[in-house]
Amino acid sequence: MAARGSTTNGRLLVVLSVVAAALSSLSLAASSAPPRSQEPREALEAVRAGYYLAADARLRSLADLDASLYTHLYYYAIPVHPVRRTLLLPADPAQVRLLATFCRTVKAKNPAVKTLLSVGTVGGAAAAAGSRSDPAFAAMAADPASRAAFVDATVALARENSFDGLDVAWRFPASAVEMAEFGFLVAEWRATVSPGFLLTATVYFSNHVFDAPFAGVDYPSEAIVRNLDWVNVMAFGLRPVSANVTAFDAPLYDRASHYSASYGVVSWLDAGVPASKVVMGLPLYGRSWFLRNKANNGVGAPAVAVGPKQRGSNTTGAMSYAEVQGLASASTSRAVITAYDNASVASYVSVGDVWVAFDGVAVVAEKLAFAAHRGLLGYFLWPVNYDDDNLTVSRRASQAWTQSKSSPDLRNITGARQAQAPVQLPPALQSPAPIAPTSASFSWLSWRTLDVRLHLGALTLVCYQL
């Protein structure tokens, strides 16, 4: 018994020594690391951004894109390898050329445009807008070594191909631990890049991930404010699609639930992310259904299935903006019904038994008026190669944003229609109190400290078991 006690004490001393050494090393790093500047980075110009889906380049060649309509263009996307936890670079020669020439092609038409390389979850426009988690990205971010290698690899790839910045499109961290690792990732990114190099994130429509498998999944707002130039809020694809009933995919308002663009944007502001770091997304795709009864064609009408698969977007239940317009204009024998819903700020078109919810130009104009009224940094279009031949939405968005920002009174804005959750949420889904970042409350090292302490938790369990 005495020998066993002596052995246990010896193990305990070894573990405690490891813990003490780790904490001592961490303290030394804290005292020796150069202090990060507490001064805010230079104010950014208003953002009129567009995502170009490389996988759908056939719908519109990059050379045919009018780069003058945007201030920032994203190459979307380079995924994480599902096994090796490294970047999965394109193998198709055409995709390789697109990546290599992306910046040169768009800057030939607009030298002022900034280009960003988006890394993360891939898929079609509608599929990527959903709330599915990305196991490969999560596995990479969970391991400090693979995360550090990922940071180095993304920065190197962006610089090799002349990009002005990087975007992390991890959709979506599905637990509190994954959110903490998201914070580590963006902090390590910021510590690696040089001043002036843009860092952004493509994020869920709300600061709280409602469809996550675990409760309490909130983005690390303080890390975002500290380390990212802005977040691109995906204010579309707001709820899982039911094959049984029609619904709006990206309404600005919804008094019956929190699934609205306005609620999502306000949640980010309430979480402490300043409006000057929030960019609101507008979809250039529509959701479609087959109606059960052609005469019953309103919102919430019974449906028999999601809509037809399109040759362009190549997805059942989804259409590009160009395909929506083509569906309506090509119909000669079937009645075409278009409607704009003022209460939710959303629109749809019904052609025979096909029903499509989409953002028309009137919806785009009012959404951008809301964004300007809230003081947001700007907007992004998802994706620009889904626009029609005349780039109708891209042009109207640019005009509407300029008009909304220049309006002295914004008298046509109805941005107060949904400023809070319309229903009382359970405690697990309620957002935490807003964070007021201060210069002394956070640094990149604090996230690294938390990273180490999470791993030291395992050592504590060992001590308990001895």
Describe the structure in your own words.
The protein is of the alpha/beta class and 466 residues long. It has a domain at 44-283 and 360-421 and 442-459: Glycosidases (TIM Barrel, Alpha-Beta Barrel), CATH 3.20.20. Helices cover 37% and strands 17% of the residues. Strands 1-2-3-4-5-6-7-14 form an 8-stranded parallel beta barrel, surrounded by 7 helices. Helix 6 (176-192) packs parallel to helix 7 and helix 10 (361-373) packs parallel to helix 11 (392-406). The radius of gyration is 24 Å and the shape is globular. It starts with a helix and ends with a helix.
**DSSP helical segment count:** 12
Instruction: Please compute the radius of gyration using only Cα atoms.
Output: 24 Å
Distance between the termini: 14 Å
Q: Strand share of the residues? A: 15-25%
| CATH homolog superfamily of the domain at 44-283 and 360-421 and 442-459 | Glycosidases
Strand order of the largest sheet: 1-2-3-4-5-6-7-14
What is the molecular shape?
A: globular
Quote the average pLDDT.
82
List unreliable stretches of 5+ residues: 1-42, 411-416, 419-466
- Look up the CATH topology of the domain at 44-283 and 360-421 and 442-459: TIM Barrel
What is the string of helix and strand elements? HEEHEHHHEHEHEHEEEEHEEEHEHH
Structural class: alpha/beta
What top-tier CATH class of the domain at 44-283 and 360-421 and 442-459 fits best?
Alpha Beta
Helix content: 25-40%
Largest sheet: 8 strands, parallel, barrel
**CATH-scheme architecture of the domain at 44-283 and 360-421 and 442-459:** Alpha-Beta Barrel
How many runs of DSSP E, i.e. beta strands?
A: 14
